[in-house]
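Forwarding these from the shared drive since the link keeps breaking.
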Amino acid sequence: MTSDQILAEIREANLSYLMLAQSLIRHDKEQALFRLGLSEDNANLINTMTPAQMMKVASGNTLLCRFRMDDDMVWNLITSHGKGAANDGMSRLHASILMAGRHQEAA
């Protein structure tokens, strides 16, 4: 993959992320804050962005979203390494609880 292709993929991902974020914020702001890991100020900013502003922000060369799982415990829970399908739901629930707690700490 060339540098130009990578930049095009980043821009596309950024625009998709901004559109998803704006849609979630407008539909259910509290859920959006939790699911996207956004502060209320950032959510308000994204909510008021025009399509032209979203295109401008998305066209940068830096990916706007990031992975929120910063430790091995959460990664192991969501990928269910070495566990059967029966525990998959419980592992994902546990990971969600851990990430929710971190969201509250950051807020």
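-- next protein --
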Amino acid sequence: MKRETEGKAEKSLFGFNRNILFTGFTSFLTDTSVKMVYSVMPMFLMSIGASKTSLSLIEGIAESTASLVKALSGFWSDKIGKNKPFMIIGYGLSALIIPLYTFVVTPFHVLILRFIERFGKGIRTAPRDSLIAGSINEGESGRSFGLQKAMDNSGAIAGPLMAFALLSFFPENFRLIFLLAGIPAILAIFVIIFGIKEAKKSKYELFSKFHFKDFPAKYYFFLVIIFVFTLGNSTDALLMVKANEVGVKVALIPIVYLITNLVSVLVSIPIGSLSDRIGKEKILITGFIIYAVVYYGFGITTSLGAIISLFALYGLYSAATDGIQKAFISDMIDKNKKGTGLGIYNALLGITLLPASLIAGSLYDKVNSSVPFYFGAATAALSVILMLAYFLKYKKAGISS
């Protein structure tokens, strides 16, 4: 009751807690930087000699090898009852690393920097999500994580737009983009320092020792579903490569990718609010179905118009899953364990991305460009079945999520 009363007292003009708004703004600035780089990185890597397999491997290794940090930082933030220091360090590493892409000359250099930058994300992600979870008013987890997703994707719109503008004036000057991308990331550090307040916990609320039994069985069941789904959810870089092969010019790749993020921004908060009302399981099942349709579509299409439509639909899938999954986990875990629970979830995503990227990249290079998308559609379809089983087992049995 105290948290709810405090949350209402701290509401802003837009009806969100101060921490949630400023955390979202931090994500907006950092995502602007990251997506300026990410939207052109596949084309840059291939320009310096990387294959599609190498492209997928770089992303997979960077995400997976730093993933253990996500679980550890989540547990540590629960243990000491603080989240803000982890955010400063994690976002600070991104601000430091992003401009250094300007100086790379081989794919191996990209791998090293990408690993360090993702290591920073590993430090900050679970504590940030825990801060959001600790600042939410009761019954608004979907809406609050929906705002976080919308702000993430707003940055993912601004970043590619800036990259497109720079490529228009300076064709294929990827290094200039990398240099300028550091500016928003630096600004994000000041937002954390001056805009975010620690969601303090009393010493009696701290989570001092991890035991598997501290988390409910439905949490582990959901992690199994996430593992199956993520195994077919490889790096988005392959979507951009596919778009280029179908006929989208290199300079327009950031704009096509922007469509995904624009759709996600527009619908993330409404979908989050809807999930609070009708149940997050239903939204997640819908999101997995959309993903299966999108990936099957990428596998069969050779049409430029169809590719653009699929990128738009991909934004709808993103809004119906990413933030909703975090809100879903937040709802089922005790307050003093949210950082740990969300950290394990984020770590699982990163670890699974390595085999997912290896599978997709190998299928793309050694079989054909359609098979990795068919594989992703199949794992999504299996996830729908598992999510239906989850719904029947727990929701129908009267066990709330």
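Residues 141-169 form the longest helix (29 residues). The CA atoms of residues 8 and 393 lie 35 Å apart.

- D.
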